[in-house]
Specification:
This protein has 338 residues and is α/β, with parallel strands linked by helices. It has eight helices and 14 strands.
């Protein structure tokens, strides 16, 4: 089954990663339309030996398009997503625009591919930090129901986009040179700093990023009882998110059993040997598809507690790869039409 595909946000960091992954995985595409803002229209991008011209994304852009991957921000998704669906296009959206709508599947293919079959033209990619956490936790959840999750994230600037990467590099050099730091992307300087502030603060004192992890976990696991206690932090790392995760399970999962479960899981790589100082870091994981897990140990916080360190490439599995895997599943199962 070959499809007509559109990529919205094709010039951004995630859009560029999507195109790279489509090529790497040799996804069957009949035609590819590159879409972006009016500002980016006219640029050319090479794909499979052909130079394609980026077009301005408008409602009419989706005529005769089977699937569109959106990675241009929530405001664009809210405007153009429904317009694409009206024209018979299935939208795989990487923003927060539709994730918590009851009739929109929120999908991690390793966890709940069955939800894809329920789509009505819209499918949401979860938040990057949620994706890597749940890919690591699902094999454990299947062995013993998880009651509580405590998670602190250490999130790279690439999650904000190319402007944030540029700002980290520039402010780091300014700091080394003793120059003034004038942040524009973040509310405080990210160079040699950590910011416990991702997205906007909510009335309950948590940030939107933290509440995404709470609400998306419940929806993906189909478990309203699970408790998630998150703190999301931005760190001066270019790419890859890291997470310190502790879980409480109904029955005990020993570190040895956890390693065996994770070793056998799809999309997970265990990198855990403290005697030889082997554990995952962003530099180890950048450019990799799997979610890497290390420092697996029995926790102190509850009788059946287990702690671990989880690292994933937020541009790949945290965004672009997850979207492409959804696309591959739809092509394989021929469940594009609804």
């Amino acid at each position: 089954m070959n499809i007509n595909l559109a990529m919205v946000g094709s010039t951004g960091a995630v859009g560029q990663e999507v195109l790279k992954i489509l090529n790497e995985r040799n996804v069957k595409i009949n035609s590819l339309k590159l879409l972006a803002s009016k500002r980016s229209a006219g640029k050319t991008i090479e794909f499979r030996g052909e130079k394609l011209v980026v077009e301005e994304a408008t409602p009419d852009s989706f005529e005769n398009i089977d699937v569109a991957i959106f990675s241009a921000g929530g405001s664009i998704s809210k405007i153009l997503g429904p317009e694409a669906v009206k024209r018979g296009t299935v939208v795989i959206d990487n923003s927060n625009a539709f994730r918590m709508e009851t009739d929109v599947p929120l999908v991690i293919p390793e966890i709940n591919p069955h939800a894809i079959h329920k789509h009505k033209g819209l499918i949401s990619n979860p938040n990057c930090s949620t994706i890597q956490m749940l890919v690591a936790l699902k094999p454990l959840y299947d062995y013993s129901k998880i009651k509580k999750i405590w998670v602190s994230t250490y999130q790279s600037v690439s999650g904000t986009g190319t402007k944030a990467i540029k700002e980290l590099k520039e402010l780091s050099q300014n700091a080394l040179d003793g120059k003034e730091l004038n942040p524009k992307v973040y509310p405080k300087a990210i160079a040699f700093n950590v910011l416990p502030h991702l997205d906007v603060f909510q009335p309950n004192g948590y940030t939107l990023e933290e509440m995404k992890m709470v609400n998306e976990t419940k929806k993906i696991f189909e478990d309203e009882e699970i408790i998630v206690e998150p703190t999301a932090v931005r760190v001066p790392v270019i790419n890859c998110h890291s997470e310190a995760v502790t879980i409480e399970t109904e029955k005990e999962i020993t570190p040895q059993k956890a390693r065996a479960l994770l070793d056998a899981a799809n999309g997970v790589c265990v990198m855990d040997n403290i005697e030889e100082l082997i554990y995952p870091t962003p530099l180890d994981v950048a450019g990799k598809d799997d979610v890497y897990v290390g420092r697996i140990r029995k926790g102190f916080i509850a009788q059946n507690a287990l702690s671990m360190w989880v690292v994933g490439d937020n541009l790949r599995k945290g965004a672009a790869l997850n979207a492409v895997q959804i696309l591959e599943y739809m092509i394989d199962k021929e469940c594009i039409k609804w």
